[in-house]
Inverse folding.
């Protein structure tokens, strides 16, 4: 069995062993689409200079294959594993977040950054202001940002970016945990790496 369960990777692995020791800390990414008449401003991917102390890239622009231009995401703490909307809340999962010492340490150090992300989640103008750091021609006021897209595109386990747990002595299993980015999740190089990691299991 190869466990590539994404958001549910830890619950799926829990009945089989040590994945219970790995905490979950969910973040929701929110995007806007730039209005069609302003898409000409950006023809490529544009990223801000990231803060190496934080696991997020910051609001950036992504040119889609259908011609749309997305701005985002922010990184808002979600109150549930599948908290795609602002009011989604799971008491059990929220208490797990609060009990996680790594999250409390992160919150103490970077509460200002977290607060700014929350404000951007509720204020379109603040979101647009962050976008202007990458594209000064985006105007505020009557904002050039159109419909909002909610996406669970950031799922952060407070462990190194990738963790693969496998133990073949008792069970033929490979657990793939913590895929925090859609780019990483769909990377063919990582898929190739996983095939090699699963080779001992497959050969049995």
């Amino acid at each position: 069995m190869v466990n590539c369960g994404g958001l549910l990777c830890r619950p799926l692995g829990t009945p089989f062993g040590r994945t219970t020791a790995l905490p979950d800390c969910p973040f929701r990414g929110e995007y806007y689409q730039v209005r069609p008449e302003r898409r000409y401003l950006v023809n490529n991917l544009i990223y801000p200079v990231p803060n190496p102390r934080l696991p997020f890239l910051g609001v950036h622009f992504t040119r889609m294959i259908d011609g749309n231009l997305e701005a985002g995401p922010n990184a808002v703490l979600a109150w549930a594993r599948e908290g795609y909307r602002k009011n989604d809340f799971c008491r059990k999962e929220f208490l797990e977040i609060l009990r996680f010492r790594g999250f409390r340490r992160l919150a103490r150090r970077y509460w200002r950054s977290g607060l700014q992300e929350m404000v951007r989640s509720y204020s379109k103008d603040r979101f647009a202001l962050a976008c202007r750091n990458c594209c000064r021609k985006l105007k505020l006021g009557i904002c050039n940002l159109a419909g909002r897209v909610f996406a669970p595109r950031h799922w952060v386990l407070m462990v190194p970016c990738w963790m693969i747990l496998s133990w073949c002595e008792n069970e033929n299993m490979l657990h793939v945990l913590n895929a925090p980015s859609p780019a990483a999740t769909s990377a063919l190089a990582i898929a190739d790496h996983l095939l090699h990691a699963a080779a001992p299991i497959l050969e049995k």
